[in-house]
Amino acid sequence: MTTADSQNGKRLTARGAKTRARIVDAAADLMYVKGVGTTTLDDVLAASGVSKSQLYHHFEGKDALVRAVVDHVGERVIERERRALGRVSTIRGLRRWRDALVQNSALQHGAYGCALGSLAGEVSDHDALARHTLSRLFTEWQGLLSGVLRRLQDRGVLPAEAPIDQLATGLMAALQGGYLLAQTARDVTPMATSIDMALAHIESLSAG
Amino acid sequence: MTTADSQNGKRLTARGAKTRARIVDAAADLMYVKGVGTTTLDDVLAASGVSKSQLYHHFEGKDALVRAVVDHVGERVIERERRALGRVSTIRGLRRWRDALVQNSALQHGAYGCALGSLAGEVSDHDALARHTLSRLFTEWQGLLSGVLRRLQDRGVLPAEAPIDQLATGLMAALQGGYLLAQTARDVTPMATSIDMALAHIESLSAG
DNA sequence: CAATAGTTGGACTATATAGTCCATGTCTCC
DNA sequence: GGAGACATGGACTATATAGTCCAACTATTG
Predict the structure, then answer these.
(1) Which of chain D's bases lie under 7 Å from a protein CB?
(2) Which nucleotide lies nearest residue B19, CA to C1'?
(3) Cα(A77)–Cα(B77) distance, rounded to whole angstroms?
(4) B190–chain A Cβ distance below 8 A for any pair
(5) Stated in angstroms, how far is B11 CA from D25 C1'?
(6) How far apart are CA A100 and CA A110, in angstroms?
(7) Quick check: A173 and B183 CB within 8 A?
(8) Could you list the residue range(s) of the whole structural domain that residue B50 is in?
(9) What is the pLDDT of residues A111-141, one digit of tens each?
(10) Can you give the CATH number for the domain in which B26 is found?
(11) Which residues bind DNA (chains A, B) (predicted)?
(12) How many angstroms separate the CA atoms of A144 and A146, rounded?
């Protein structure tokens, strides 16, 4: 966990932890759909069925809540990606990973974008701490992609000279850029296209 | 111009047009730096040295102002890109284009991201009209990239079968994703890396 | 030079929203 | 089982912000 999750020094009963989790869950969902700025504390209260004092009991204020949401969403995304990428060691596996993300986004016609990416866009310029956490999360996600590429390398699919980390950065950017274009067009096609191009580039190196 | 710029039917004197432009200019700058949601009308008033009634004389409300900002920023970006890309017909030219964008972003250590991209992220899920405009702007920008690739094709640098439009989409996504990663990391390196990867892929097709 | 339409200044209002407070209820641990 | 800490409910406040109103001013046009 990044920030104080088990309230600095305070005891925290199972009941309290549950309430806290309910708040963060509701806030994360709302902020994904409505955006961070337009999600009010009253929205969060209504959605989680919790009173204001409880919210302020568990969080110092909205900023702290936003940070908790970043932590929570980050954990969820990284967990999902770890499951999806942790053992992939083929180009086909990467394509399946791509398909899953694209199809998932297609359910909303691209709306809302990447859970992490849209948080990053909304928060990065306003909260240095949250930005830093998001930056680490992206790096971690990228590390999972690097792992896949390294396994490809180990299996001889990619040459030893292939710049693994840079390829992972490029793939990550293709993903995030694709999300943004899809979100704006309300059509996942550009997202599929951009990831395809990145994967095609990676695949083209295997000939070398 | 997309939305009503010369107020539907109303006369508009040179003086009025100037005031209107001052408002949009100030709003665009503030919204780029502070974000759309956290920029208040009072901020815009203070920055442009204009009174509230003038703002409401020229715009129906904040939404209308945001749309005018989208139009204005869009025009500025497209103009800049038309100048930068309009006559490029070499890979080297594309690299110079990349350098200009990266260096420009480096001046702010990546902060604020792409003028169009960050607007898209903030506005797409809240204002269908603005989203549509932004989508068209991205398409237009991408069209400029397609133009470059087509010239490369005409000059025999790229093969006839090269999927121009998809490559342009991929390049655009690499750019936008790079912006987002740079904004989050406050370091332009990932932006440079991701565009490089897209350009390397395009270049690699010239061998085919 | 009127008459009309566009332009401006700034006080005023309504409301949404973050944040406070305190009384009461419920655990935990000795 | 009792003391003290944790947890909860909800009313209350302060304030920021979008939006209104109107009187006065300035340009344009017949």
Answers:
(1) 5-12, 16-23, 26-28
(2) C7
(3) 33
(4) yes
(5) 17
(6) 13
(7) no
(8) 12-59
(9) 999 999 999 999 999 999 999 999 999 999 9
(10) 1.10.10
(11) 40-59
(12) 5
**Total number of domains constituting chain B:** 2
Query: What are the structure tokens assigned to B193, written together?
Result: 């890396």
Is pTM beyond 0.85? Reply is yes
Same-domain status, B185 and B145: yes
Are residues B29 and B79 located together in one domain of the fold?
A: no
Q: Chain B within 8 Å of A134 (Cβ-Cβ)?
A: yes
Q: Which of residues 18-37 of A touch strand D (CB under 7 A)?
A: 18-19
Tell me if B3 is assigned to some domain: no
**Cβ-proximal residues to B192 (8 Å cutoff; 6+ apart), any chain:** B98, B102, B178
- Residue A56: in which H helix or E strand, if any? helix A52-58
Per-residue pLDDT of chain B (208 residues; tens, 9 = 90+): 333 343 444 566 777 788 899 999 999 999 999 999 999 999 999 999 898 998 999 999 999 999 999 999 999 999 999 999 999 999 999 999 999 999 999 999 999 999 999 999 999 999 999 999 999 999 999 999 999 999 999 999 999 999 999 999 999 999 999 999 999 999 999 999 999 999 999 999 985 5
Instruction: Using a CB–CB cutoff of 8 Å, tell me whether A143 touches chain B.
Output: no
In a domain, A190, yes or no: yes
A50 to chain B, any CB pair closer than 8 A? The answer is: no
Kindly list the residues from chain B whose CB atom is less than 8 angstroms away from the CB atom of residue A172.
177, 181, 190, 194
| Nearest C-alpha in B relative to A119 | B121
The answer to whether residue B4 is domain-embedded is no
Q: How far apart are CA A190 and CA A197, in angstroms?
A: 10
Chain A positions touching B169 (Cβ under 8 A) are 181, 190, 193-194, 197
Last residue of a domain, one of B59, B81, B98: B59
A122 contacts B180? CB cut-off 8 A:
no
How far is it, in rounded angstroms, from Cα A68 to Cα A59? Answer: 9
| A67 CA – C28 C1', rounded, Å | 30
Cα angle value A159/A163/A168 (rounded, 5°): 115
- Cα dihedral A106, A112, A115, A117, rounded to 10, equals 110
- Give a yes or no: residue B96 inside a domain: yes
Interface contact flag, B197 A170, Cβ < 8 Å: yes
Q: Alpha helices, DSSP H only, in B49-163?
A: 52-58, 62-85, 91-106, 115-123, 128-154
The amino acid at residue A178 is G
Q: Are residues B30 and B103 in the same domain?
A: no
